[in-house]
Amino acid sequence: MSRPIALLCVAVTFASFLAATRPAASASCVGVNVTPSSNIQRLVDAKAAQTTFCFAPGIYRLTSTIRTAYKWPVFDLRAGAIIDGQNGSFSGISAANAPAGQVGMEVLGGIFQHFGNAGAPSSVGPLVVRDNSVVEGTEFRENFNTGITIQGSNARVSSVYTHHNGRYGLRVTEPCTGCPGPKGAIIEDSEIAFNNTRKLATNGDAGGTKFSGGTKGLIVRRNKVHDNYGAGLWWDSFNRDAQVYDNVIYNNSNWGILWENSYGGAKFHGNTLTNNALGGTNKFFNNVQLLISCSDASTGGIEIYQNTIDGTAYPLVLLNHSGHPLRTRNVYVHDNVITLRATTTRMGGRAVNDLVELFSAGANNRFVHNTYRVPDTSGPYWAWKGSVSLTWAQWRNYGLDQTGLVQKIA
């Protein structure tokens, strides 16, 4: 006979949520037992490829990198293992790329902390994810530079919590200078928060994330990205074909989303951006919640649709400037709901250094059927063709948002 169940609403951290929803390794892990006193390198070397290692609860204080090479093990840390780098100048785990069709190294659960220091190379961190590898349910915290780095194609990072790291929470970059960037990597259902604790310059190389080196087909979905000192999600240089959707992005000091010096095939949809970019000082640059900067989408286009953007910073801008070789083209902004909560807020297009081709018919940048919520429906909130104070009627006179709506904030 069934009995009624009382449901209690309690505040839980992301990490405790993962712990509650994933089985503990001690109950489900079948493989080689590992304790904090084990010689992990010796165990990996002695076992066959794709062996599962079941880590008991405790702190594992590393003194050197665990090199798994072509073994592609499964490291099951879900029982409560903490991998501690003791602020050393070495990375935590090193693995090789797995061949096509084979799963690479898998890391499940656990915590990685305290890798790197001021004297170590910036590449030092807990973990580099290689081709076909998987990281799921793991926490990365208090590392000197980056929490987790992806350098492999078809890698998948799911349900991780990367926070309070010194430079970035997460990076995706090419594995070597001149090498192609990762293709088809997935970042999903994760939380990226409170990173760049060292307060490094946010317009250079620090923030919540950085995707660089020509990534292709990167999928970023259903993540919670917030309270980073710098950008939330930042694509920098020669990226293409990203799918960015259903993310909740808020309270990042600069851009919520920045697509910079990159190409087409990108789609941004179903995202919610709130109160980002309040730390920016350049109104049409780092004071923008969603910025498309110097990006040529002649092939594949850039589509921005069905997003919700709300705040007092500039919500959405298309930008050209002379700092990059590419020019912003073929951007289609449609069916978004955009709330501008300050009379000083602007959105639209901005051309610096006389790079006015942004506004040409050939550039094919367009705004269609967006809804704008503003303090005063007669106010000047839009920017286009050199004017930064256009009214709704003037904006529409340029052929923009002919079926769009403007509404007063209730």
The beta-strand count equals 39
Number of DSSP helical runs: 4
Strand order of the largest sheet: 1-2-5-8-11-14-17-20-23-26-29-32-35
Helix vs. strand class: mainly beta
Helix percent band: under 10%
Give an account of the 3D structure.
By secondary structure, the protein is mainly beta. It has four helices and 39 strands. The strands form four sheets. A 13-stranded parallel beta sheet has the order 1-2-5-8-11-14-17-20-23-26-29-32-35, with no helix packed on it. The protein has a 13-stranded parallel beta sheet with strand order 3-6-9-12-15-18-21-24-27-30-33-36-39, with no helix packed on it. Strand 1, helix 3 and strand 2 form a beta-alpha-beta unit. The longest helix has 8 residues, at 14-21. Residues 1-26 have low confidence and may be disordered.
Describe the secondary structure blueprint for this structure:
Elements: H1 14-21, H2 25-28, E1 32-34, H3 40-46, E2 52-55, E3 58-61, E4 66-69, E5 74-76, E6 81-88, E7 93-95, E8 106-108, E9 111-115, E10 128-129, E11 134-136, E12 139-141, E13 146-150, E14 156-158, E15 161-163, E16 168-172, E17 186-188, E18 191-193, E19 209-212, E20 219-221, E21 224-226, E22 233-236, E23 243-245, E24 248-250, E25 257-260, E26 266-269, E27 272-274, E28 288-293, E29 302-305, E30 308-311, E31 314-320, E32 331-334, E33 337-340, E34 347-351, E35 366-368, E36 371-374, E37 382-384, E38 387-390, H4 392-397, E39 405-408
Parallel strand pairs: 1-2, 2-5, 3-6, 4-7, 5-8, 6-9, 8-11, 9-12, 10-13, 11-14, 12-15, 13-16, 14-17, 15-18, 16-19, 17-20, 18-21, 19-22, 20-23, 21-24, 22-25, 23-26, 24-27, 25-28, 26-29, 27-30, 28-31, 29-32, 30-33, 31-34, 32-35, 33-36, 34-37, 36-39
Antiparallel strand pairs: 37-38
